[in-house]
Amino acid sequence: MKRRELRVSTRSLTQPDLLSAYAETHYHVVRQDKTPTDSIRSLDPTEKGQALPRLEKLPSLEQCFNPRLNSLNAIRLILAVSVIVAHSWPLTGRHLGGPLDTLGVDGFFILSGYLIAGSWVRNPKWSAFLLARGRRILPGFWVALVVTAFLLAPIGAAFQGVDGWKLITSGESLSYVVQNAALYIFEHRVGGTPVGLPYSDSWNGSLWTLQWEAFCYVGLLVLGLTGLLRRKWFVASLTLVFWSLYTALHGRLDRSIFLESRLDDGIRFAMLFLVGVLIFTLARRIPITWPLVVAAAVLLAVSLFLPDYRILGVWPYAYLLVAVGALVKLPWLALRNDFSYGVYIYAFPIQQILASTVLVALPIWGFAGISVVVTLPLAVASWFLVEKPSSKLFARKRPDMAPTVGPLSATTGEPT
Question: What is the DSSP string of 291-337?
Answer without folding.
Answer: HHHHHHHHHHHHHTTSSSTHHHHHHHHHHHHHHHHHH---GGGS-SS
